[in-house]
Amino acid sequence: MTPAPPLRWEPLHDGLRPHAPVASIAFDPHRSQRIAVGLYAPTGLLFSEDGGETWREDVGFAEPVHVVQFDRVLPDVLWIASAHGLWRGELHDEAWRWQAATGWPADHAAFTVTQSPDGVRYAGGVSRWDKAGAQHFAPLLWRSLDGETWHPFTMLPTPADSAVLALAVAGERLFVGTDGFGLYISDGSYISDGAVADLDGTPQPINESATSQLSNWRRVEEIGETHVAAIWASSDGSLLLARTRRGLFRSVDAGTSWSAVELPLEGRPDAIAAASDGSLFLGMGSGAILRSDDAGASWQLESTLDRDGLIYALAVNPADADHLFAGTQHGLYVSQDRGRTWRAVERIGEFRGLTLLEAGGALFLGAADGVYRWQEASRRWQRSGEGLPLRGVRALAAPPTNSAILFAGTDAGLYKGVAALRLYETTWQLVGWPQNGVNGLLFDPDDPDRLYVHIAFERIYSTDDALNDTPTWTARWEGMPISAEVLSFAMDPGNPQRLYAGAAQGFYISDDRAERWRSIAGLAGRSIFTVIVDPARPQHVYAGATDGLYRSKDRGETWERLGLKNITVTALAWDERHPHILYAGTKYQGLWRSQDAGHTWERAPFDDMDRHPSVNALLISADGRWLYAATTHGVWRADLAGEK
């Protein structure tokens, strides 16, 4: 067998938007030109030492960031509230060194960190302990007096699994925003560190001994029980703004009373920032930037930064009120004219593709912000219609008899697009469905009305009237344990009665169109991210797992390890014109190719850079010419016919 030549890839990025949610932006009070930007996914930090002219990414921090905060007292110290805890960064010899904050529990997520004018640091997050025999636990707030060690210093009168989302200090009061329980205000009597420090970070049941601590808090009744995600306080503590799911609230008497603020646009406020001259800025979920020149009493539209992107963060240069930064789900933007006009900062993040589909001769991509169709004439992607939420599209499918209809499984549910081949006429509507997070779609080729779905953290459902506006769904998990989480599924191409399901803890087979499932011992305990049937030898089934690739020669009944040991395999594709060539996409290890049906493997790098992205999906076109790969570093294609 003549070895296949190396793959030559071309990027298909034009028309896509980078996925780089900017969660937080901070200016260093000790060095006016230093800026830190926290990214949630992809994770990490950006630093600028010249006011945003140039940026550095390789700073050694790779956790998902919620908030970044430079220390007001200690120079060259940065605090990071992260999904994986509270972190302290310190600059040594022009290199940042990171360590988990001393005293902060390793299994305690940090959502916010702030500092009072006198330098005391405060942080909050969420704890999820399960202490036998305890009915309730009090969520804790944490404090550091020296910038080195953190202690729990007080409790909130909310359920233990509630999260602290926002903190602000105004005068002698501490303001705490929670996830659904509203805004709480301390009465000014801070509890000493020693009062609960002996808990060693482990919450205790709320009992009579804790009553005095809990009574130090009052909830703001004007705001009620809702998410309070951000709190801004003026330097003297008299003016406060709270960003909630019910809108913007304002206090002009240091938090004693609050009132809702009428905004000129519908939608939820997402970010607050203040300029040194007293102007206030508000980022909206619609991508609009609002400005107030009367302490937040009234607001006017300043500009629309990103119609398709939420504004997660805003920051104003303390030394220049005209100089603003805004963080969106598509990256970082800068304004030099008080927010009237914006430009994107040099591209950060990646063009992230999640899934691929060929239907009706067209190529579709599911991405973090919707569905795209490839335009070969212009060599760019075009967003496919309106109506989809700005959420990840993780699965695409078309009925076998009607390629003008497209189904999209998204993080916000299942959507149906009509006339999907006519770009500007495509309309999407939510399909009646009780669950979010649709991760997989599969049509029965013998019955175009039968659609199978698997949803996030759950199992499989099906409908026999998929083309109706309100289909009826049936749970299809008999034989699976209640804890089963289906990650992938496939159908025997010669026998639609036989289905395969890869789960987080094993592998299942159904011989009756998902009426009943049986567990297969050979893959028990393994997470199966992808399943594929060899089209030339349907008795051969391949499964990509956390620890490599497995093959069955008897339609999934027994299994053998085949290769890519200790590499997580996330996507598979067969080259039907060359039935011994198999492609495997992996997590963090790029793409691999086998020319002997999976026995030996070679890398198939996308470019000359020494990086290997995660591969989310692979697709070979119906004519066998193109291999497409949707990755965390963009969408790529290779000409398998060797014509380019």
CATH hierarchy: architecture of the domain at 353-639: 7 Propeller
Q: Work out the radius of gyration.
A: 27 Å
| Beta-strand share of residues | over 45%
For the biggest sheet, the summary is:
4 strands, antiparallel
User: What's the helical proportion of residues?
Assistant: under 10%
Number of strands: 55
Q: What structural class results from the helix and strand content?
A: mainly beta
Strand arrangement within the widest β-sheet reads 1-55-54-53
CATH class of the domain at 353-639: Mainly Beta
What is the rounded distance between the termini? 23 Å
Shape designation: elongated
Average pLDDT, to the nearest integer?
87
The named CATH superfamily of the domain at 353-639: YVTN repeat-like/Quinoprotein amine dehydrogenase
Task: Spell out the blueprint of helices and strands.
Layout: E1 9-11, E2 22-27, E3 35-39, E4 44-48, E5 65-70, E6 77-82, E7 85-92, E8 95-100, E9 109-115, E10 121-126, E11 140-144, E12 151-155, E13 164-170, E14 173-178, E15 183-186, H1 194-197, H2 211-214, E16 217-219, E17 228-233, E18 240-244, E19 247-251, E20 259-260, E21 269-274, E22 280-284, E23 288-292, E24 300-304, E25 311-316, E26 324-328, E27 331-335, E28 343-344, E29 353-359, E30 362-367, E31 370-375, E32 380-383, E33 393-397, E34 405-410, E35 413-418, E36 427-430, E37 438-444, E38 447-455, E39 460-463, E40 474-475, E41 486-492, E42 495-503, E43 506-510, E44 518-520, E45 528-533, E46 541-545, E47 548-552, E48 560-563, E49 569-574, E50 582-586, E51 591-594, E52 602-603, E53 615-620, E54 626-631, E55 634-639
Antiparallel strand pairs: 1-55, 2-3, 3-4, 5-6, 6-7, 7-8, 9-10, 10-11, 11-12, 13-14, 14-15, 15-16, 17-18, 18-19, 19-20, 21-22, 22-23, 23-24, 25-26, 26-27, 27-28, 29-30, 30-31, 31-32, 33-34, 34-35, 35-36, 37-38, 38-39, 39-40, 41-42, 42-43, 43-44, 45-46, 46-47, 47-48, 49-50, 50-51, 51-52, 53-54, ...
